[in-house]
TrEMBL record, chain A:
This is Cytochrome D ubiquinol oxidase subunit I. The keyword Electron transport applies. InterPro entries: Cyt-d_ubiquinol_oxidase_su_1 (IPR002585). It is found in: Cell membrane. One of its GO terms (cellular component) is cytochrome complex. The chain crosses the membrane at residues 20-42, 54-80, 86-115, 122-142, 177-202, 223-247, 318-344, 356-383, 403-429. One of its GO terms (biological process) is aerobic electron transport chain. Its main location: membrane. It comes from the Bacteria.
TrEMBL record, chain B:
The chain crosses the membrane at residues 12-36, 57-76, 82-105, 117-142, 162-181, 201-219, 234-253, 265-284, 304-326. It is a multi-pass membrane protein. The lineage of its organism: Bacteria, Bacillati, Bacillota, Bacilli, Bacillales. Keywords: Cell membrane, Membrane, Transmembrane, Transmembrane helix. It is found in: Cell membrane. Signal peptide: none annotated. Pfam families: Cyt_bd_oxida_II (PF02322). This is Membrane protein. The keyword Transmembrane applies. It comes from the Bacteria. GO terms for cellular component: plasma membrane. It comes from Pontibacillus litoralis JSM 072002. Belongs to the cytochrome ubiquinol oxidase subunit 2 family. The keyword Transmembrane applies.
């Protein structure tokens, strides 16, 4: 591998690792906030206990999220100095605002974590709400920079390749900012809801759980089902808007996502299969006639551009079709699952049966896979550019020779952290089971 | 005032804050390691009690510094990023190990000993790595290859000035943290811990000052411009030493330890700004000046607004934070 490929591999792995913890870091505070509010409304102490135990797990994972986030921030400058040179001139605002959002999150997280017992209830609510707002704001702001890479705005390049006519506000509100930021936020809330649903489902499937503990886990599952249902539907609606944004601003990416080679009206939607470069078609796919045109422009005669409109060296890797399908496919499955669970509760008015719980166990990890696939799709689908039509990845990458050594060290670090963070979570919750805390409160 | 000069002043102020917070954070980790096994003193408990809620905030200041550098001086970032790939990469790995272990050990008591050692050792290695960046920017350790800067590792690792910088960084870290922790122990009314840390501050103070002065003499010929600049403007350094003497007297008097802490902060404040102004106009000598590294003025003024708004929200949050963890007796002295 040459330096550019190594730099991409290292940074891609770093983001792939960070996004797991970052997604959890964005979603869990919202779940804690919901539990705290439920407690204030119902005065049911189970919700307070849920909030407390989620906070414990959150604190463990937040450490990895903060550490890997620090790595991402510094590594951007180390591995892609050419990119950061333009970032600093055009799109520095979200990065700087993000620091303050994150400081607010860090300060109030410490307060909520170490001083909760000294705070009046309303101030505790303000603290965790600030954590949730800070975390979501951080995600929105970093997504802004990502959106700007897809739809750059707010500057011009002169004939020497220098940045001129900078308009930081126009860069901040670049065309894809709002729709992409919403996509990231909603899907993070959705994923965490399903993850918590998975954990509750695992507990409920155990046979040695007593009635008291069962009620407790059902409350957790109920929150997870409702939040998951709302967020997965919202993510899908916003996903539609995202696809139309890609159609408008980044037709090359849409063509690669759908494996469409020839520009055409009444374009079909290909589901599944893999894109063949030689035969210029998607093999073994299910084709829905006219669907792609309709999705892109709300009309069957919308003209969708194919890959052949662009020189082949500017095509993104064609396997992004698979990534796109994984993301959309899992999203659809999760909506279905939520609907079944809700209907079961509303019509049968009974606790979920074991087969449905078993499906919920799988839902959390699947949602996380969809997040990974979505980020990979968005970043690989942007290739060969780092900033679309402005800066190629080769120009952006470092010219330093030592990336290989760092690659090995960082991968080792991530593997270790993954194992350790799972180990610590298991150890902590085994040592501190919920049962004694439930009975303790009733005395 | 020149825009790039304003920008570098803000950047330098963040560096000042981080060097203080970082010294406390890393130093507290080191002292907790030293006194972790000692049954007779609460010195390690005091250090850990300070560390638990503060490390996140300290860590954010590091990121704040990096982001400020990128946004104010994007062209400097591309050069420094290429140059410092390996040292900063290794530093990041150590910082990650430190951060995550600290939180892991908080939840798994089996890890306590591993944590003590990890936090203590990284508390020395990370600052050493960060301080070694200073001599690189002074000149003599960079070679241009095909228009891209490369770091001369063998020259850097065999140069006495590198090690003097590291010695200065470490003694500063230990001095500041010992002094601050003795004040924190006094707040907690813990006499033994107070005396333990005060004793260390007393021998570390003059040592740090001595190393700082000696470091200037180890600078390579390429850094002669910098030495010349410090000699041309020696007054702030004298003021700084004045603050040190005042602070040291308060420390010896065994009273008004808070006044001693304030004097030493002033000492470092004056010295850091004097160091910074002697470094001008270069960011990396002789390849890059602040004007060459500077962003455009549109971006600069937008950023200024963001910093003003951000800080005005944060200051009240910090005051609340300070009251809860550094003043509130229920946290500082939980056993009473």
């Amino acid at each position: 591998m040459d330096t550019v490929e190594l730099a991409r591999a290292l940074f891609g792995t770093t983001l792939g690792f960070h996004i797991i913890y970052a997604t959890i870091g964005v979603g869990v505070p919202v779940m804690i906030l919901i539990a705290e509010v439920m407690y204030l409304i119902t005065k049911d102490k189970d919700y307070m206990l849920l909030a407390r135990r989620w906070t414990k797990g959150f604190a463990i994972l937040l450490a990895v999220s903060i550490a890997s986030g620090t790595i991402v921030g510094v590594m951007l400058s180390l591995l892609f100095p050419g990119f950061m040179e333009i970032v600093g001139q055009v799109i520095a605002l979200p990065f700087v605002i993000e620091i303050f959002a994150f400081l607010i999150e860090a300060v109030f997280m410490s307060i909520y974590l170490y001083a909760a017992d000294r705070l009046p209830p309303w101030l505790r609510l303000v603290s965790i709400a600030s954590v949730a707002i800070g975390a979501t704001a951080s995600a929105v702001l970093i997504t802004d920079a990502h959106a700007w890479m897809n739809t750059p705005a707010g500057f011009e390049l002169n004939e020497n390749g220098q940045v001129t006519n900078v308009n930081p506000i126009a860069a901040f509100f670049n065309p894809s900012f709002l729709v992409t930021a919403l996509h990231v936020t909603l899907s993070a809330y959705m994923t965490v809801a399903f993850l918590i649903g998975s954990i509750s489902a695992i507990r409920l499937l155990r046979t040695n759980v007593n009635k008291r503990e069962r009620t407790y886990h059902r409350k957790s599952l109920t929150i997870a089902i409702y939040v998951g249902a709302i967020m997965s539907l919202a993510t899908a609606m916003n996903g539609h808007a995202t696809a139309q944004m890609i159609y408008e601003y980044n037709p090359r990416k849409l063509a690669a996502a759908e494996g469409l080679f020839e520009t055409t009206t009444h374009a079909p939607l290909s589901i599944g299969g893999w894109t063949s470069r030689e035969d210029q078609e998607v093999k073994y796919a299910i084709e829905i006639p006219y669907a792609l045109s309709f999705l892109a422009g709300d009309r069957f005669d919308t003209e969708v551009k194919g890959l052949n409109e662009f020189p082949e060296e500017l095509w993104p890797p064609l396997f992004v079709h698979i990534l796109f399908n994984i993301m959309v496919g899992i999203g659809t499955l999760l909506i279905l699952l939520s609907c079944i669970a809700l209907l079961w509760r509303w019509i049968r008015k009974k606790p979920l049966p074991n087969w449905l719980l078993a499906l919920y166990v799988a839902a959390g990890p699947l949602a996380m896979i969809a997040i990974e696939a979505g980020w990979c799709f968005s970043c690989i689908g942007r290739q060969p550019y780092t900033i679309v039509n402005v800066l190629t990845t080769t120009e952006a990458a470092t010219k330093s020779n030592n990336v290989g050594l760092l690659f090995v060290l960082f991968i080792t670090l991530y593997v270790m952290l993954l194992i350790f963070s799972i180990g610590v979570m298991r150890y902590y919750f085994k040592r501190n089971p919920v049962q004694p805390e439930l009975t303790e409160k009733e005395v | 005032m020149d825009e790039s000069f304003m920008a570098v002043t803000i950047l330098w102020s963040f560096l000042f804050v981080y060097s203080l917070l970082g010294s406390l954070d890393f130093g507290a980790g080191f002292w907790a390691m030293i006194y972790g096994k000692n049954q007779h003193t609460n010195a390690s408990i005091i250090a850990n009690r300070f560390l638990s809620p503060t490390w996140e905030v300290t860590n954010v200041f590091l990121v704040l510094f990096v982001v400020t550098l990128v946004s104010f001086f994007p062209f400097a970032t591309s050069m420094l990023g290429t140059l410092l790939l390996v040292p900063l990469g290794l530093g990041l790995i150590l910082l990650t190990i430190r951060t995550t272990f600290m939180v892991f050990a908080h939840h798994v008591h089996k890890f306590h000993n591993t944590l003590r050692i990890t936090s203590g050792v990284t508390g020395l290695l990370i600052p050493a790595m960060l301080v070694s960046i200073l001599p690189i920017t002074l000149g003599g350790f960079i070679e241009m290859e095909n228009g891209y800067p490369q770091l001369l590792y063998s020259k850097l690792l065999t140069s006495p000035t590198t090690y003097m910088h590291i010695a200065f960084g470490l003694s500063t870290e230990l001095f500041l943290s010992a002094l601050f922790l003795s004040d924190y122990a006094r707040e907690a009314s813990d006499r033994t811990a107070y005396h333990t840390y005060r004793k260390h501050a007393i021998w570390l103070g003059p040592l740090t000052l001595g190393i700082a002065i000696l470091t200037i003499f180890t600078m390579p010929p390429e850094a002669a411009w910098f030495v010349q600049n410090t000699q041309d403007n020696v007054l702030p350094f004298i003021v700084s030493i004045g603050f040190f003497i005042a602070g040291y007297c308060f420390l010896l008097l065994n009273k008004w330890i808070r006044a001693s802490v304030l004097c030493i902060i002033l000492q470092y404040g004056v010295a850091i700004y004097a160091y910074g102004s002697a470094h001008l106009p270069y960011i990396v000598y002789p390849h890059l000046t602040i004007q060459q590294g500077f962003t455009n003025s549109t971006m600069f003024y937008q950023l200024l607004i963001v910093y003003a708004i951000g800080l005005s929200i944060l200051v009240p949050a910090f005051i609340m934070f300070w009251r809860l963890f550094l003043k509130d007796r229920r946290y500082v002295r939980p056993d009473n």
